[in-house]
Design goal:
The chain has about 1100 residues and is mostly helical. It is about 50% helix and about 0% strand. Among the domains are: about 160 residues, no CATH class; about 120 residues, no CATH class; about 130 residues, no CATH class; about 90 residues, Winged helix-like DNA-binding domain superfamily/Winged helix DNA-binding domain (Arc Repressor Mutant, subunit A); about 35 residues; about 110 residues, Winged helix-like DNA-binding domain superfamily/Winged helix DNA-binding domain (Arc Repressor Mutant, subunit A, Orthogonal Bundle), CATH 1.10.10. The N terminus and C terminus are likely disordered.
Amino acid sequence: MTLNTASMAPAFSTERLAYVVDPLPGEALDSWIEAYARQLIVTSREFLTFIGLPGTHLERMLVKLLPEEAAVLARRTGVSPETLCAMTLEPFDQITVTLRHTTRGLGSPPRWRRHKGSRYCPTCLAESGGRWQLAWRDPWTFACTPHAQLLVETCEGCGQRPHPAGRHPAGVTNPARCTMARALGRGSKGARLPCHADLTTAVAQPVPADGQIIHAQNFVDAIIRHHTDVPREADGTQVGLEELFFLAWRGLAALHDNTVPVPSLMRQLLGEAGGRAPALLTGLSNESATDVAIGTALAMTILQRDHPHSDEVMHWIANSHLRKNGSMDVLLKFNSWRSVCSPPILTRALAVIDTRLRPIDRLRFATASPNPQPPSTPVELIERRAANVPATLWPSWSMRLMPHQTGGPRGMKTAEYRAGLTALLLVVRSTSRTYRDALALLGQPVSPNFVKSMVTRLDHPHMSPMLAALTQLADALDRHGSPIDYARRRRLADTSELSLDRAAFRQLTAQHGWRTPGTQRLDVLDSYLKAIVTGTLTATHPRVSDLRFRADPAVRAFLLAQAAAHLNQLGIDEPVTWEPPSEWVTGANWPGTEPTDIAPDVFRRTTARHHKLNDVAESLGIGIEHARLYAELVGAIPTVQKKPRRPRGPRTNAPDEATLRDLYLRQGLPLRRVSKITGASVEVLRQALTRAGLALRGRGDRPNHNHHIDPDWLLEQYAVKHRSFADIAEEIGAAAITVRSIARRAGIASTGRASVPRDFAATTEGLDLSADVYRAFCGANAVARVRHVSVLLGHDSMASAAHAAGLNESALRQQVTVVEKATSIRLVDTLTPLTLTAPGAQLLRQVRPVLNRYASLHADGVANSAAWRRPPRTPAPEPAVLEDLYVHQGLSLARVCKATGASVRVVKEALTDAGIEIRKQGHRPNYACDLDRDWLYEQYVVRHRTFVDIAGEVGMVSTTVLNIARRKGIPLRTYPGVPRDFATTTKGLAIQPAVYRAFAGWNSVPRVRIVSSLLDHHTIESAAQAADARVPELLRMITVTEKNAGVRLLLSERPLRLTAEGRVLLHQVMPVLDRYETASPQDFTPGIHDAP
């Protein structure tokens, strides 16, 4: 039997309902349907069944309305389908909520967490008769803007989030009453009844109508409206809410970071939200309306650049999150910002973390520039930039970016440093993470490890200015380019030969009367020519460096002409040299020197006055490499050619011809021996021999070179008696190289061992010595060492023997080891008690005659042997004086020597004889004394005295005072202090801190004296003339004084006008200058009183 199911289905009316309930603006679909059902005194499920939607779930309809459901509702209620769809959550899909279209459920929202139920405004529910707004379901809605209060989270009766729809079988709902089911009591059975609590009586947190929270709600509502109004495929600003959520979450997390101070806006927001700080949020936390309100307000403040607290809040959040935490680097944390935040926010965050990044990352992200951005420059642009720069940076830019200490005794290699600067220039905004890629584009002028060490060793004050200048220069190069393709020149230099026109250069030297250049000099010129053409100068040959500084202007012009000819021959139409203008970088505090700060005439006079490069650099106050670079830029330094000198006239009387023939020809003595015998200089002897017609022998050539030396005698003297070739040669009147050659021909192998003293053979003449004795006296200071070791014979302990020898125990043991190694004889058998071996005791007894010979020969004078200990030349102080100065006052040995006039050796011997223990280096009886911190702070920080000066006053070493200052937390400066005689010279004067700072540094007294001439003159020229200085020199001294004192002196140069504080400072330094002039009225010249 077949059932007709169609006839059994209920028939629903298709007519419009007679009773109409219009939806309120912004009302949710389930709230409207529930209100419709209440008016008809039915449940929402019965209402839907009645209109023709049986079995439909109201919660699913709120998420997404099907077309057939929209059609039925529109037909039965008269509300358009568009209006009905706008009352659902579908327009907010992937914006504030996440829809599951298959099941018409809700997934995790894109931002914040998903919550069941709805927040609500009690006042709105009361005014609307229990109608619920769709926006209350939005996680981003946290405040009611019409009533200026935060939304309520839960029902005060049951503690749950309420829901506008009723729960079956609760029946018809009451308006503004909680429909959530109450929890049954323990053990109760049956259906749970609804809560029925009055939601309009809930207490909401009021907020100021014009406060930050209401502004934040309006701000986020505008963003949501923009997303819903713009078509999804055309909306390119969808990341707005993601960025807002990220900044809001980071702000709430920063609130619980105690290491950074909370901004004032945060305290204002907490006051608006009720004064209670939000709890620490985690990934599974339920964010309340207060949490979302405070976080959104913070994020809005950052995004609104015109907000007065925008930068403060941005620094607070970035400082809290973007820092190294354990193994997580700052850059790894910043990647989370890059995936969410917009470029303006990334720029501001990078500016905050600038100094926390590695130097290579600071360049890649350009954090030292006004516009830092994540690296996105394509590889093609970096390659084009590499073609626009030389492998070693341009001379003027090297002067600006190279600190003065570079190239000094402990500095870095200057040529490699310039290549490292170019490599850093290519790293700017590059996606590469290593220096190796940048160096590969330059032809590997230096190694990547050198660039790393260069950046690591750079002083911190120079790091930021250098990186900022390199970043601006790289951006300007990308915009303007360069007229020279250095990459092409480097390629052509590798494939073609760049050499000087030899004939043309010889013609040039002939025109100027210079020496004919040799092969080595021509090779140096070739190297320099190649460096000019390719811009690559990594060879640090001394001749190349000297050529860069001392080349004659004619030679420089010739090299430039040769370079132009080579480029023309290769078909390259480019200028020979080019440099970017300095205007491409603005606001830079150069680590080095601006070339325009050095006047060419001053530089020319300085180089003419000083021949050595070090003296030129020191006189100008610049680095050595800076002087070379400036010489290349100016190109007008006169050459310093070594012309043939006239022989000097004889300064000593020449011996007669007979004496010369006897000493030089018959005896065959070398010129130095003849000079020593006759008292005439070697130059005088050569002239006398030439006038006498006697031929000069070549080096190593002797008349007795071919005479016979008995090989057995030579073997005995060299191998057995351990005499040196020089000692043997002096005895027979030959050169040491001659004796060495004879020994080699006789088959006597050179041992390379140490030998006995030069006077050993003469001193021990007639003594029958064993081979062990000769070996014992080999080496430097052998006589003194053997004398010390021989003391072991009469003592039963090593300590007593060391005391008798005037040594400490470790030094004596070391000397015993040296003697044992030289003789291959073990001396000491046991240490406690001290027992000597039989061979050792025998050896020490055998050396006694030798020591007695040395003692008798040198008892009344200074020992001829360099190994003998010289007797005291100054009288030793009395033991009482030593005890007072060294023990009671705790003075150092140097201070004791200065006080008594005795040498250090004499004082040490006197202390040992007096039984006073000599302290170790750096140890003082008052080392643990507690210097008053305020006094030390005043002397070092306020009065700018040096640790050496303070240590001399308190009787310590400077290292001790330095350690005390570190322990007491006194900040250390990196620049020189006042002169060492400043404290004594200005004793009794009331000096201001600015005066101390003005007198800090090298040559400070003459510098301040010259600057003080500004007081009596109305033009800078007359002041310079009165101070006997050039105008650029005076201006440079004014700059140094302003920088040291922190006081601006000049208001204008023309006319000369001093600032008020500058005039006060110059008046304050006058009493100090008067003191210095009084202390040395005759010889008050620069540098006299200026010890650092």
